[in-house]
């Protein structure tokens, strides 16, 4: 990491974003608390009556038990991805916050690392809130469910790095509609979130397994159900490898954009 000129000073960027966040924390806390309630009511009361039970890896689960870990995973993806696309772009392009930071002893690598770690932190904070709400419905198996918190940090780094990579390319903020339409929305729908991957046509399944949200959902579901199986290791390995590729790539591309 030394060749990237990254020290613990990146926490100064994280601290700056935290101070701004604390000014609006009351509003920021509302979506992570209300969204799972609304989803669980809609799917638990509505669709569960139609779907009943779901066959998943040899077990029969109520539909609301099946989708609860999916909601946590979607929440992790959304918080880090949107923080490191729209919010980071505003700080970089409109507010010139990155320029101000680079006028200090902070390096560019530390600024970008602080942004990505902050995006992952927002995923963890939102996951804590959602876990509290979902647990009230008895949908999380403890103590295994607590491992979803470090999983949220890993997923936040992966999706935050992905978001920052897009930020390094887009010429204006409206262009974020493209990765959201072409990547985020398909992942939201086809990553085993609302139905098991086994019901997909055979030729579609490899594509679904290539999506990072699929592995985040499967890992969250294993932990929420209290299953520490070998498949969990492969999901964590996938997310770790994805982060190790996207993180330095995002820094490299941001350097090319900011230092010309």
Lay out the secondary structure.
Blueprint: H1 10-23, H2 25-51, E1 53-56, E2 59-62, H3 63-94, H4 97-102, H5 108-136, H6 148-167, H7 177-190, H8 205-210, H9 212-224, H10 230-258
Antiparallel strand pairs: 1-2
Helix pairs in contact: 1-5, 2-3, 2-5, 3-5, 3-6, 3-9, 5-6, 5-10, 6-10, 9-10
How does this structure look, described?
Helix 2 packs across helix 5. Strand 1 and strand 2 (59-62) form a beta hairpin. Strands 1-2 form a two-stranded antiparallel ribbon. It is mainly α and 260 residues long. The mean pLDDT is 90. Helix content is 73%, strand content 3%.
Strand content: under 5%
What would the average pLDDT be, to the nearest integer? Answer: 90
Count of β-strands? 2
Distance between the termini: 22 Å
Name the poorly predicted regions: none
Cα gyration radius (Å):
19 Å
**Helix segment tally:** 10
- Placed side by side, the strands forming the largest sheet appear as 1-2
How would you spell out the order of helices and strands? HHEEHHHHHHHH
Helix percentage range: over 70%
């Amino acid at each position: 990491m030394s060749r990237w000129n990254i020290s613990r000073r990146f926490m100064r960027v994280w601290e700056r974003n935290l101070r701004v966040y604390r000014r609006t924390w009351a509003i920021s806390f509302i979506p992570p608390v209300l969204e799972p309630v609304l989803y669980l009511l809609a799917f638990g009361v509505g669709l569960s009556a139609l779907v009943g039970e779901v066959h998943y890896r040899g077990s029969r689960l109520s539909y609301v038990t099946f989708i609860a870990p999916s909601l946590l995973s979607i929440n992790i993806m959304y918080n880090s991805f949107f923080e490191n696309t729209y919010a980071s772009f505003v700080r970089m392009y409109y507010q010139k916050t990155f320029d101000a930071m680079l006028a200090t002893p902070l390096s560019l690598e530390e600024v970008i690392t602080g942004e990505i770690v902050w995006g992952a932190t927002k995923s963890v904070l939102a996951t804590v809130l959602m876990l509290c709400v979902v647990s009230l419905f008895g949908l999380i198996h403890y103590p295994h469910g607590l491992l979803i918190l470090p999983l949220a940090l890993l997923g936040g780094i992966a999706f935050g790095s992905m978001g920052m990579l897009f930020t390094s390319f887009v010429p204006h903020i409206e262009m974020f509609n493209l990765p959201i339409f072409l990547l985020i929305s398909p992942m939201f729908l086809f990553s085993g979130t609302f139905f098991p991957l086994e019901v997909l046509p055979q030729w579609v399944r490899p594509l679904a397994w290539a999506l990072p949200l699929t592995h985040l959902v499967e890992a969250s579901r294993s932990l929420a159900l209290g299953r520490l199986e070998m498949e969990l290791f492969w999901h964590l390995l996938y997310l770790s490898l994805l982060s190790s590729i996207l993180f330095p790539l995002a820094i490299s591309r941001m350097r090319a954009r900011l230092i010309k």
